[in-house]
Amino acid sequence: MTQAQPPAGRFAVVGNPENRRVALFADAVRAAGLPAPRVVPWAAVLRSGGAHFAADEIVRLDSPGENPEVDRLLRDAQDPTRVEGSARWYARFTRATRALRGGLRLDDPGELAVLFDKRRCHATLAAADVPVPRSPTSGAAAAPVRGWDDVRALMRRHRMPRLFVKLAHGSSASGVLAVESSAAGRVRATTSVELAPDGALFNSLKVRRYEQERDIAAVVDALAPDGLHLERWLPKASLRDRVADLRIVVVAGRATHAVVRTSGTPLTNLHLGGARGDLDAVQDAVRAAGGRWTDALDLCERAAACFPRTLCVGVDLLPAAGWRRFAVGEVNAFGDLLPRLTGLPGSGAEGLDTYAAQIAAVLRRTDPGPLDPPYLPHDAHDAHDANDTHHQHHQHQHRTGTTHASA
């Protein structure tokens, strides 16, 4: 692989200095033979109202999650495991991204504002003819969901007996409920939200099921002030009797890395008990169903193309039962935390982890500018992929704070 000359400037990263994301990115920068990046702490950005970068600094934004001080500055939350406060988080985070001045930016503030609003992101994807689950809350003009009564009414009006209720500005399954209703009117919800006796909501590593509608209503009513997004629950394909979906990382317009997530519950997030699946088995299932694996990757690239000024996104790809069709569940701004996973054959990122692939994309840029989207060469996709056998699962405590970026 031929690599261009390093840029005249140096990398800088806005992140939490102690976080493994920053460490992994810094390791990749040094491995490329470049000076270690300048680290600008999110806490300093939030306390000072912004940050300034030199004209030739190449600036990456990383997740502000997993830092109690930063979480307090963004949400006013004294307990990082609390669910509430995501609307405040969104307002302060997007304001902070707009307060960064100078540098060659690898993330666009306007696109980040869309990516962290599920209603706006869903509408953007739908407008680009990217298949997404049906939603009555898609777009900024959709009627707000003020509580459980509104959810119930929308379920009836749109004939959605099974749906996902999501925080508009949440991530890592924070505040997500998979809701099912029967013809007799009974309802149940699967979620990682823990409802405390005093009505407080906590993120938990334990996926639980609420069978009483009054409990579900209490959770939804408490979440509603932060903004809710509803999506039809699409029946997913299965792999070895477990539901499956995929996280596809797209760097500079190319699908470079892929992991399969499987679970015995509707929530496939790894920190909630999801497990890595076999990507070769997925590709075999797609081919056996008469489909093409390259079509799945192309769909993820189409989704990422809706955000051309953001170097890297993680696309959550939902395979329909039977493995013949796919839809895009979400596009994640900080969806690249997949340590030691190397790139797909034919992607231009062979042998590179997600961070090294992004650095390689920047080094291959021609005439870089603050608004010019970087790119990787457009090689043909390969029908096969490397196994993800080396990924390390980060361990959390029983309750977990909102990370706004996890796979």
Folded structure, characterized:
By secondary structure, the protein is α+β, with helices and mostly antiparallel strands. It contains eleven helices and 15 strands. The strands form three sheets. Strands 10, 11, 12, 13, 14 and 15 form a six-stranded antiparallel β-sheet that branches. It has a five-stranded antiparallel β-sheet with strand order 8-7-6-5-9. A hairpin with a 6-residue loop joins strand 14 and strand 15. Helix 2 runs parallel beside helix 3, helix 3 crosses helix 4 and helix 4 packs antiparallel against helix 5.
Task: Provide the descriptors you would attach to this structure in a database record.
407 residues; single chain; 6-stranded antiparallel sheet; 5-stranded antiparallel sheet; alpha+beta
Number of strands: 15
Poorly predicted ranges (pLDDT <50, ≥5 residues)? Answer: 1-6, 366-398
Q: What fraction, in percent, of the residue positions are helical?
A: 25-40%
Output the radius of gyration: 21 Å
Q: Main beta sheet: strand number and arrangement?
A: 6 strands, antiparallel
Shape: globular
Number of H- or I-type helical stretches = 11
| Head-to-tail CA distance between termini | 29 Å
Give the helices and strands, then pairings.
Elements: E1 11-15, H1 20-31, E2 38-41, H2 42-48, E3 51-61, H3 68-75, H4 86-98, E4 100-105, H5 109-115, H6 118-127, H7 148-157, E5 162-167, E6 177-181, E7 187-195, E8 201-210, H8 213-223, E9 228-232, E10 238-239, E11 242-251, E12 254-263, E13 275-276, H9 279-288, H10 293-304, E14 312-319, E15 326-332, H11 354-363
Parallel strand pairs: 1-2, 1-3, 3-4
Antiparallel strand pairs: 5-6, 5-9, 6-7, 7-8, 10-11, 11-12, 11-14, 12-13, 14-15
